[in-house]
Amino acid sequence: MVLGSENTIRESRDWGQEYQREPAVMETAKTILVVYHSQGGTMENLARRFVRGAAREQGISIQLKRAADARLEDLLGCSAIAIGSPEYFGTMAGLIKDFFDRTYEEARQRTVGLPYVVFVCGGNDGRGALMQIERIASGYSWKKALEHVRITGSPVEQDLVAVEELGQTLAAGIDFGIF
Description:
There is one protein chain. By secondary structure, the protein is of the alpha/beta class. The chain has one domain: Flavodoxin domain (Rossmann fold). Helices cover about 35% and strands about 25% of the residues. It is built from five helices and ten strands. The chain has helices spanning about 40-55, 70-75, 95-105, 125-140, 155-175, and strands at about 1-5, 10, 20, 30-35, 60-65, 80-90, 90, 115-120, 145, 150. A hairpin with a 2-residue loop joins strand 6 (about 80-90) and strand 7.
């Protein structure tokens, strides 16, 4: 999903394609890359709520990608990254790790200081996945922009609102040059 300012959103059910809002003229090169993995739909819903919040800021484009579809070029072209992962057996999703594996060597020197946030949902407590993602982000020398969102169990409306607010706050910070 790529969102710019205003206009309409065309949707496609083909996961190989991006959802896109087409602005008349792209106002800025500031982009938030949202990388997530979802098997049952929970993390996809959370990622979409993050995007909804981020889209409130008019000067930011949002690129929503499943981890398996996210590429090095997406990472190198973003102004900030949000990572959404379920916690499986106390660890991050394998496809989130795969994204890091595929991009690390080429991106680590070129993304130093990249602002990042994480939202995790775990049946246990989510701390294992969060710790692993933070450790890898440290290897890239990324900068934690905001407190991450950690959800235990099935998300309730309060959790969805927290993820949406995380998206809006990150987008506002990027737009105003805070992060």
